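Exercise 7.
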Amino acid sequence: MQRAIFVLLLGLIGCQAEPTQSSGPDPAATLNYTTTPSTHPAAKKAPALLTEESVEAAPADLPAVDFIRLERGPCFGNCPVFQATLLKNGELQLRERNQSMQRIQRTPTDFLKIARLLEQANVLRFASHYDPSNRKLCPNYRTDHPTTSISLRINGQSHSISHYHGCVGFTDEAALLKLEADLQQAMQLPFANES
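Solution. The predicted structure, written as tokens, is:
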């Protein structure tokens, strides 16, 4: 029964012509980016709708993820700076430093892989801020490092994690760094190996 409801909901969401505000915030609307057709080398052509095969492969207990956003801020040095939002329909909205936003179509199974990744990492267990202002969660810190932010809506609950990479020595540090790297790889970002 749960699988039938999951298939029905994903099918209805996939039938929308444009993502709505309920599918997750549009970076172009919130950050006033210009939008261009995707010419990015990482762009892939894929169907916009979830396929029956990908839904059948998804376990019934998979979390309901509406969107996932991964952002990386600047550092003192050469760090990739970007904002990448993956919507349920497989659309990746990618904005790199000094570039207009790219709309790249990923496969629907890419989105399902990320939902599984978030479930395995138990993403809701992470605190909302790991930065020097929170000495309990950031006992030691260094300057001039980037900040990575993860924002998502999972099972109807919004959650954000802001991680200043100068924070070291906190309990969930290794797990959070692994999640950030895994998300970059799963989103197939062209600079995933540069961070």
